[in-house]
Amino acid sequence: MDIRIAANEDERRAAIAVAHAANGVRSPLATYTALRLAISLRRRARWWVLETGGGIVASLLDYPIVFGLGAQRMHGFGLGSVATHPGHRHQGLASRLCTTVADARATEGADHGLLFSAVAPAFYERLGYRVVEAVQWRVSEPASVQGPRAELLPIDPVAELGMLAETYEHGHAGLFRPRDEGGWLRTLEDNPVDTWFAVPGGYLRLNDADGELEIAELFAEDPSAVVRAVCDLAAVLGRTVVSWVDVGEPDGVPRVAESRDKTLPMVRNLPPEGARFWGADYF
Ligand SMILES: CC(C)(COP(=O)(O)OP(=O)(O)OC[C@H]1O[C@@H](n2cnc3c(N)ncnc32)[C@H](O)[C@@H]1OP(=O)(O)O)[C@@H](O)C(=O)NCCC(=O)NCCS
Prior knowledge:
- By secondary structure, the chain is an alpha+beta fold.
- It has two domains: 2-134 and 262-281, 3-Layer(aba) Sandwich (Aminopeptidase), CATH 3.40.630.30; 137-257, 3-Layer(aba) Sandwich (Aminopeptidase).
- It is 29% helix and 30% strand.
- The chain is built from eight helices and 14 strands.
- A seven-stranded mixed sheet has the order 1-2-3-4-5-14-6. A seven-stranded mixed sheet has the order 8-9-10-11-12-7-13, with helices on both faces.
- A hairpin with a 2-residue loop joins strand 10 and strand 11 (212-219).
- Helix 1 packs across helix 2.
- The longest helix has 15 residues, at 93-107.
- It starts with a strand and ends in a 15-residue tail after the last strand.
- Bound molecules: coenzyme A.
């Protein structure tokens, strides 16, 4: 068995073919592969493949990332797209691959890890990861929401970068993914359809896609009042409101908690208590 970083475009295509089979994707392999090769985020990853006598049968992506805890900065990695071909499962291949990548990162002094698990956490717990407490919720009938609304002031995020960065930096109590100026500009470039609003005491980031208006980031004096204002927008747009942002139990907002079993954050060699990772933190 050989575990290595994909040496060329053919091996990257083979890695994507493993994920295509592993996830039972219905779309044609060619379009699935082309889409994945064009995603700018993936160009920042190291693509790992595991080859046996049967060829490349397991793969994952390893993104270099930095963690923040207060003013402290720690180098680490994010694991994504972990996959083993269905014909080669239950032989410890994915475990070996994950361990090899973590060991490789450790020799570079970057042994802090994050992933968003799509399988029951026991698999990654065995590899040293711990679950981060995380919420996910939905408001299906935003028109019925009651209570005071905050004012949402549309902003140009580049012009307001100073305010956004300052609010973000001070808005986290536990572990988070800090953004320097380059990180902010990349976030804006990678997510050109997100919209940004100044709100009392902070800012709001929205993503409108697939019939859902997502509160992607929120820092505010009164987060509940901002959620109600977002519900007004969603009611006009005909969207449901979804979010990973923990806003407690806002009065007058009939929310439903949902499972995070496809996106459960887990960390390795880092404190999960109070950690906060946003949807946009992938990766
Ligand atoms: C999850 C996955 C990568 C495991 O690959 P693998 O090479 O069989 O993994 P290993 O042999 O190292 O470990 C197998 C263990 O993983 C766990 N596991 C595998 N699939 C699982 C699932 N869907 N839910 C929960 N646990 C699972 C089991 O504990 C299993 O133990 P077992 O072999 O005793 O039954 C593979 O099943 C896969 O590609 N799944 C589809 C893609 C996916 O969901 N990837 C995870 C992204 S976070």
